[in-house]
Amino acid sequence: MIKQFLLNVLLMIVWVLLTGSFTLADFIFGFVLGYGILWLVYRLSKGEGRRYFIVVPKSIMLFLFFIKELIKANLHVAYEVMTPKLRITPGIVAVPLSVTSDFEILLLTNLISLTPGTFCIDVSKDRKTLYVHEMYVGNKEQYIKNIKNGFEKRILEITQ
């Protein structure tokens, strides 16, 4: 998978050098173009490395999901700050983990902590529970379900 990624980056750099334009749009287009070329070559040759072509789109979907959650949480916190009455119901939620590796736990805790109104406090010693402080804990079961069907599910799709 690393080999395919490096080839993709190389094709992106070649594209940018050929066009002579070093804008973000050209880098993104070069990466997408390189991804398409690699996908076509691997599909025609039936070569190894097909996992790369699954992981890249799922990684992009995780990123877009994070951006959506980030915007939603920012709007929610901004509304809370601008209204005269506080409606927060803070609490600590114990979220059972399906992710197991250090990387998966680290990614999950960072995505949760980067979202306004939430902060990961600790991971249990057996690494099966994540303790999260949330500003708006109404229904703990629903909050756990949102984490499991949101960030955790998308992380597992990428890493396993």
From TrEMBL:
Gene Ontology cellular component annotations, sorted alphabetically: plasma membrane
Keywords: Cell membrane, Membrane, Transmembrane, Transmembrane helix
GO molecular function: monoatomic cation transmembrane transporter activity
Subcellular locations according to the entry: Cell membrane
InterPro entries, A to Z: Cation_antiport_E
Presence of the UniProt keyword Chaperone in the record: no
Membrane topology: Multi-pass membrane protein
Transmembrane segments: 12-40
Pfam families the record matches: MNHE (PF01899)
Entry superkingdom: Bacteria
Family according to the record: Belongs to the CPA3 antiporters (TC 2.A.63) subunit E family.
This protein's name: Cation:proton antiporter
